[in-house]
Amino acid sequence: MSDRSGVVFDLGYSPHEGPRLGRLGAVRAVIKDGVRRVLGLRRRARRKVLPWLLFSIALLPAAVFVGLAFFVGTFSPEAESPFGGHVEYIGLVGTLVMLFIALAGPELLIPDREEGVLAVYSSRPLTVGDYLLARAGAMAIVVAAFMIVPNLLMYIGFAAIDEGGFASTLASNADDLLRILGATAAYLFGYGAPAFLIATYAKRNGPATGVYLALMIGSAGVASALSEAGNIPGGRWGALLSIYQHPEIVRSWVFGQAPGPGSVPTNAGFEPWASLATIVVVTLLTAALTHRRYRRLM
Amino acid sequence: MADSIITTAGLGHAYGDIVALHHVDLEIPRGRVGLVGANGAGKTTLIKILLGVLHPTVGTTTVFGADPQTDPIVVRSRVGYMPEGACLPLHQSAADFAVYAAELAGIPPRAARQRASDVLTLVGLHEERFRYLGEFSTGMKQRAILAQAIVHDPEVVFLDEPTAGLDPEGRDEMLDLISRLGAFGINVLVSSHVLPDIERTCDWVVMLDGGRVLRTGPLEGLTDTDTVEIELLDDPAPVVAALTARGAHAEVDRQTIVFTLAGGDPFLLARDVLAETGAGLRRLGPKTTTLEDIFLKGDGEA
């Protein structure tokens, strides 16, 4: 028997002598945590259900279209599917993205604040701006995945089976990629900023999600009533309160199409750039108010 | 002080009309330093200013030579913080949160996982590391909070009321852990209103009262006295008379005599007087002064 048997080694504590990634590492950690959080990764199973269900619904039609086109050969999504091409598909996914953001916005900000975790961030190499940008970055990554992955699948899938050749079809439709990116940005900021603003002041996730959905769904009705009421001075500007519709208007604009007939800002005579400007203003306002609130907390 | 890790000069902070800190001048050395004071004395305010979370109304402060107000990143790269109260994400496991806390300090992911495992073992949470933090008891949560505060190997860790809400056993274990931090090369600034906790864990103390520094210095010097306490079996009157006759200042409380001697060794005097009077001795020793005595007395250097 070895004379070392029975020895208990107390490993104690060893200092970290390796590299430290500093501020950049901290920001990367917050982004990674944010992505995991909104997708329910490394959380209980029930926290994964809704985000992955929404993501599956967003992806499934694109996969079906490409599959049909591959097996049937003559399937054209523009002509034969209720969702049409990229512009219509983004419209479909846009609604799913709004539902996703209704859950993700509160989840990214409220638990840290209400569970006191901000105190931990205040002892790490991270500024308030770093933290908020990293949280927004996490949202951007997942929203981009929602919008870009299915469209990319269609873009590559249809090019692969196109009789004109894979490379030439990709090249001839390359403009679509930029349009998809532009529309994605419009949805990200147009739907994400109001969610962040509500989450900045709400104390619980559930009510924040409810308020956000009520605001988004109700905004078109309120905006329409205001803009059509002839006896309110400047009531036409109320049409811009239809925040749910601004990303859709920008999407149509980016793809060179006219907005739908129910578009309140368009019916009130506003050009698409007014919708873009509204998205920018709401985003800047959200950034300022959120930063102001968090500056006092961490 | 040459080896100070934290300095403040004329530091003041007010919440509206309420002054939380009033002209605080401090030089806090390396080691385990206790920050004691009643609730509302300004302890948490001072820690938050050191972290750069709160901004002083007047005065300056440095942590490792950097100003937390102008260089918060520099300061926050070198500190850990165990806040008073909850700071745990309830839907995350202890292991995941400890890894995240390490990565937040810039530790690369692989090293962060290793350090999280080591530190959770150190604080006694190895078996529970994959449980969700929302399922933890108060004592386990306090350990997890301590783990996040040291997982990134900070140079100094601020512990704000680390034993709050713990049962006696949990408190004892937490104080043991805090006592060991110094041996790991981590400087400690521990805030508490429980004076025995500070006496047990620290070697330097800062006493705050109403936002002012009541006293600061090494604990050993603060509690040392040249007062002798004698507890007798018999009537103390003859002993008191003999002590007074030889120039001692004595006070009597039932069978106990407490005396000081200006010039000379009080223990030699006690020996002589006890031999001379033949009084029955129950106990003889230096009078122990606690932080509580000093705090309640409220005098001393500021």
Notes on the structure:
The complex is a heterodimer of chains A (298) and B (302). Chain A has 298 residues and is an all-alpha fold. Chain A has helices at 22-39, 46-72, 77-80, 86-114, 118-121, 128-161, 166-172, 174-201, 205-228, 246-254, 264-267, 272-295. In chain A, helix 2 runs antiparallel to helix 4 (86-114), helix 6 packs antiparallel against helix 8 (174-201) and helix 10 crosses helix 12 (272-295). Chain A is globular, with a radius of gyration of 23 Å. By secondary structure, chain B is of the alpha/beta class. Chain B contains eleven helices and 13 strands. In chain B, the strands form three sheets. A six-stranded mixed β-sheet of chain B has the order 5-6-7-3-8-9, with helices on both faces. In chain B, helix 3 packs parallel to helix 5 (138-150), helix 4 (109-122) crosses helix 5 (138-150) and helix 9 (237-245) crosses helix 10 (266-277). Chain B starts with a strand and ends in a 5-residue tail after the last helix. Chains A and B meet through helix 1 and helix 5 of A and helix 2, strand 5, helix 3, helix 4 and helix 5 of B.
> For the report, how would you describe the main beta sheet of chain B?
6 strands, mixed
- Number-wise, the strands of chain A total 0
Helix content of chain A: over 70%
Q: Supply the number of helical segments of chain A.
A: 12
Oligomer, anyone? heterodimer
- The helix content of chain B is 25-40%
Main beta-sheet annotation of chain A: none
Strand order of the largest sheet of chain B: 5-6-7-3-8-9
